[in-house]
Task: structure prediction
Amino acid sequence: MDTGLLAQIDERAEAALDEVVTAISEASLRGRLRELLAALPEEQRLVVQSVYFESLTLRETAERNEIPLGTVKSRLRLAMARLGSALRTEVQR
Result:
């Protein structure tokens, strides 16, 4: 078999393996993020879900939950700090 063809096959196999590893890593991270979201206090989790998964504005989130806009901002900030800290800990391991 031609060495150029073998090199192409090796490159394609390596690229496919990289894609598989990336997909597994992303799936693992998504699963861990779900776990971390579930561990948030309910009021923080609801705000994160509304803003990031339902694409509601902060004001819409406040109206839906019947809470002040400042409370939405505080809960979102606290939730993101908690998630960021947990993810940094995961990366350092």
